[in-house]
Structures are given as C-alpha cells and as structure tokens.
Amino acid sequence: MFTAFLIKYAEIGVKGKNRHLFEDALVHQIKFAMKKCEGKFLISKSQGRIHVEAQGEFDYDEAVARLKTVFGISGFSPVIYAEDEGFEKLCDTVVGYVTDVYPDRDKTFKVHSRRARKDYPKTSMEINADVGEALLNAYPEMSVDVHEPEIVLNIEIREKIYIYSETIPGPGGMPVGTGGKAMLLLSGGIDSPVAGYMIAKRGVKIDAVYFHAPPYTSERAKTKVMDLAKIVSNYTGPIWLHVINFTDIQLYIHEKCPHEELTIIMRRYMMRIAEQIAKETDCLGLITGESIGQVASQTMSSLVATNEVCTLPVYRPLIGFDKQEIVELAEKIGTFETSILPYEDCCTIFVAKHPVTKPSVNIIRRHEHNLDEQIEELVKTALETKELIII
Ligand code: ATP
Ligand code: MG
C-alpha cells in the first residue's frame, strides 16, 4: 500500500550554506543504497524534504532495510499518495489508511495537516477538524488528544496528497561524503569493520588497507576481508581496498628483531605503509579497531609506540569499548558472522609467547635499526606491488 518514503534528517550542523551539501550527499547515498533494491525509485529533494518514491512494484521490507543503512537519515516515514479528488475522497482515504495500518484502533490521535498549496478549499485547521471527525465517525473507539496523541496523522496537501503517521528510525549520523576521507586498517577481525562503520557514520568516506602475508595467511583470509569490506560498503558506499603483501617485511622483522617486540614493530610498519597510501589518496586520517588493553599491542604504552610513527591523526573509535560491546555492534551491522570465520589472519602467525606490554619507544627504535639494510627497499616493493580491489 505504501508507495513512498519521506526522509527525515537531523538539522544539527546543517544550517546555512552547508545545508545543500548535506542534502545532496544524502540524496547521493540514498540513490546508491536504493540501487541495490529490486524495483525503481525516484529520489527527489523539494522544499527541504527528501522523498523516495517507488516507480511501480517494489519490495517494501527490502527498501526499509536499505534506508536503515544510510547515514544522515534520522528516521523515515512510509507514505501513501492520493490524488486530490475532493475532500470527501480524502476523508475516505485517511479512514482506509487507519484501517490498514492500525489493526488495534483503541488509540488517541490527532490530525496534523499542512498545505503547500494555498488554493486548497479548506484551511489546515479545517482539514484537521473535519478529517478528525470523519475518523471518529468511522471508529468511535478512537479519541482525540492534541497534546500527547499515540498517532499523529500527517496530511500534506501538495500536487498530490501525502498521508503518513509512522516513523522508522534511521541510523543517524551524517551522510557519507560530507566529512572527507579516511583510511581504515581492515583486518579479518571483529573490531576493525566496526571501527570503519563508526567513522563513516560521521560522514567520512572510507578506503581500506589489508596486510596480507601469503602463504602464512590463506587466500580465504583475503576473501574474508573482501567480504567484510563488502558489508561495510553497504553503509559507506564503494570502498577502495588496498591489499599489501606484507610477507617479506614480516619475515625480515622476524629475522632481525627480538620476538617479544615483533607485533609492535610490525604494527609500526603497518601504520607507516597505511599512512603513505592514505596521503597518496587524499585521506585525512587513519582508522583502527584498537581498544585499550585488549591485547598486548593495545596497552597505553604500546599505543604510544604505534602512534609515534604516524603524522596523520589516528581515529580509534572503539578505544573505550569492551569486547562484548564491540561484538554487539558487529552483530547489529552484520559483520560478526563473517568476522568469526576461522581463517588465519596475518598477526596470529608471528605472535610471540610473551609480547612486551610496556614497550619503550627508545628501545623499539633502536631495534628497528637492525632493519636498516633492507627495510626501505621492502616497503617500496610492498607499495609497488599493492593490489587495488574496488568493493
Ligand atoms: P580486529 O581488531 O579487526 O578484530 P585483531 O583484533 O586481530 O583484528 P589486532 O591485532 O588487535 O587486530 O590489531 C589492531 C588493529 O590493527 C585492527 O583493529 C586493525 O585496524 C589493524 N590491523 C591488524 N591486523 C591488520 C591487517 N592484517 N591488515 C590491516 N589492518 C590490520
Ligand atoms: Mg582487535
């Protein structure tokens, strides 16, 4: 019965000349999301509103699910359109709407109408009163409450007449594309896809880098990362996934540096390489799934050591989250099931039995000098042989 959705977005930060940028980005992201839906949709912006109109047959549940992935949408209302065929017909349509949408009609309501077109023969007040009366006649169990009604029946008189009353919550946030771009260090774990989601939610476009270590990490581990990127891209739009072959760098670190510092030194090289790609691709920051104390490489001291090699800001949106909280988010956004598939990822191969938890930056730096002979060349090769997958 519904043929359209009225999109609501939070107005914060959307004042003045940024407003149209925000709206255009939102329209763009909605178009991207709806392209994945069966059916055709017309997405239009008029009078400070965004409408998504189905052109013919469509799958309602799928459309709702897609709109729930678009950051910037605070909520959306399923709408029915009626032709303007006189006021009596309008009353019938509203009664029919209530019949279909509210099987239990023992509820309080108010009618809230607006006229975009002032040539309509009744004022808004008259429409409210007269439609209200028609409803009370049809359903005596309903009652009017203008202060705290359970149902607000919105009627908008435009070219056509729009009727809606329900609001489905959207994901909130800002439309992707309004906040610049950042580079996500995406592993096959639970955390990093959630971290990407959270930064994208603030309007930031995401690209990703994955460090692959064949044959220590399988081709399936890489496919899993691509699958995760695909799920995240449902929210963010297309992701450029850079795959770096990290094997030779890892082996070299393994050969030259103390084993208890392997992870930290490896992480420093990941950050350096990620930053280099980030800078070449206009990213304004790095994103990781780190959370304080989760593992040895994420103690405060370890984070000092990892952070030291970066000049771009490193965004760690999960920094204060417990694992369980991250798992809940992963479930909500749909990445959890894929993240827990058991394929080896590149960190678990080279982990020491007793990694340092309080690394000293000076000592780490000193040990990194053991790599002086070849590391530059290895990093250069890794960057030159990088594979780009557009998700
Ligand atoms: P996740 O944090 O995604 O669950 P993890 O816990 O195995 O994976 P850690 O070893 O804790 O990863 O690494 C912390 C962060 O470093 C990750 O959240 C991710 O941002 C980044 N990272 C780790 N390994 C890789 C990798 N192979 N490729 C890209 N980024 C990685
Ligand atoms: Mg982690």
- The stretches of 5 or more residues where confidence is low (pLDDT under 50) are none
C-alpha termini separation: 35 Å
Average pLDDT, all residues = 93
Bound molecules: adenosine-5'-triphosphate, magnesium ion
Task: Tell me the structural class.
Answer: alpha/beta
**DSSP strand count:** 15
Q: What is the succession of H and E elements?
A: EHEEHEHEHEEEEEHEHEHHEHEHHHHHE
Main pleated-sheet profile: 9 strands, mixed
Shape: elongated
Description:
The structure is a single chain. Helix 5 (191-200) crosses helix 10 and helix 8 packs across helix 9. Strands 1, 2, 3, 4, 5, 6, 7, 8 and 9 form a nine-stranded mixed beta sheet that branches. A six-stranded mixed beta sheet has the order 14-13-10-11-12-15, sandwiched between helices. The protein starts with a strand and ends with a strand. The protein is built from 14 helices and 15 strands. 40% of the residues lie in helices and 19% in strands.
Give the helix/strand layout.
Layout: E1 4-8, H1 18-35, E2 41-46, E3 49-54, H2 60-67, E4 75-82, H3 87-101, E5 108-115, H4 124-138, E6 143-144, E7 151-157, E8 161-164, E9 168-169, E10 181-185, H5 191-200, E11 205-212, H6 219-236, E12 240-245, H7 247-256, H8 262-280, E13 286-287, H9 300-307, E14 314-315, H10 323-333, H11 336-339, H12 346-349, H13 361-368, H14 375-384, E15 387-390
Parallel strand pairs: 5-6, 5-7, 10-11, 10-13, 11-12, 13-14
Antiparallel strand pairs: 1-3, 1-4, 2-3, 4-8, 4-9, 7-8, 12-15
Helix pairs in contact: 3-4, 5-6, 5-10, 7-8, 8-9
The protein binds adenosine-5'-triphosphate and magnesium ion.
